[in-house]
Amino acid sequence: MKSVIECYNKLKEQRQLQNPASEVKFWKREARSLRQQLQYLQEYHRRLMGEELSGLSVKDLQNLENQLEMSLKSIRMKKDQILTDEIKEQNHKGHLIHEENLQLHRQVDVIRQENAELEKKVYETQESNEASGSSRQNYTFNNGHDLYAPTHLQLSQPQPPKTDTPEKSMTLR
Prior knowledge:
This protein is mostly helical. Helices cover about 70% and strands about 0% of the residues. It has three helices and two strands, in the order αααββ. The protein has helices at about 1-15, 20-50, 60-135, and strands at about 140, 170. The termini are far apart.
């Protein structure tokens, strides 16, 4: 392709000095040359694809085989290089992930240690409160039903004492 472009540029300079009739001849030759190159490349491509091999001699077939082997070798080398690069990249990513995982494990260990220390402090505080608070009595209201039920207190006018005993009275402990 470079040779065609070089030839074109060279002849372009010469063409500027020539007349229109010679320019037409030049372009006809150039078109014929390009057709021949295209035909040769198409034929060569078909041979590389294993088509139309019947007219080739043993030497031509051997040359074609050598070219194909060299092409395959080049293709395999390129493929191996790409796979090697991808493996290196994946190994690097795996190493980074492993380092991140180790760092996260260290952070989890620190958090577990802090939690253990906090639990120890909480239990020590509860034990000391229980030891010092054992002499204290807890005063709670009991309505006789549910200890956790909400208690509703209301202000009301004093009522005369009833003679009936209430079913359940609230006790203060």
